[in-house]
Design brief:
Radius of gyration: 14 Å
Strand order of the largest sheet: 2-1-3-4-5
Number of strands: 5
Order of helices and strands: HEEHEHEEH
Bound molecules: tetrahydrodeoxyuridine
Shape: globular
Length: about 140
């Protein structure tokens, strides 16, 4: 999936982004938790990067889906990521963990799209998920 931002269509449809995140989640490496998560990072140039959770026998070395999606985008040269969508296949609550919220803040994520357990999607502002954030602007220049 790709898109070009325009005034009339600022980003892909939320349901399409969640579908892409769900499709990515089928490739999650989650042998320990069996909780498969997928995420897509929507770059400011329109490219879309998928990620999955990648677990490890040393549990603390696990990487979240949001983190690997962001890393894929950044590795391709992206620095601004206005939107991230997250989906999980084995549960209903895919609200991003605290560490992922912080990672998103670094790259200017404004909107996090998750599935609504009641159906459809929910759009959550990162400012609500991570209030009073410490970010790049917090450091002296
Ligand atoms: N997980 C994510 O991928 N994203 C989150 O925001 C929360 C948790 C993963 C990490 C681990 O592989 C599994 O879900 C259970 O915590």
């Amino acid at each position: 999936m790709s898109y070009k931002p325009t005034m009339s269509e600022p980003r892909p449809d939320a349901a399409d982004l969640i579908a892409a995140a769900r499709e990515a989640a089928t490739r999650a490496y989650a042998p320990y938790s069996r909780f498969r998560v997928g995420a897509v990072a929507v770059a400011d140039d329109g490219r879309i990067f998928a990620g999955v959770n990648v677990e490890n026998a040393a549990y603390g070395s696990t990487m979240c889906a949001e983190a690997t999606a962001l890393a894929a985008a950044v590795s391709a040269g992206v620095r601004r990521i206005p939107v991230v969508a997250v989906a999980c296949l084995d549960g209903e609550d895919c609200s991003p963990c605290g560490n992922c919220r912080q990672l998103m803040g670094e790259f200017g994520v404004q909107e996090v799209i998750v599935e609504d357990p009641a159906g459809g999607t929910r759009s959550l502002p990162l400012s609500a998920l991570l209030p009073h954030a410490f970010g790049p602007g917090s450091l002296p220049s």
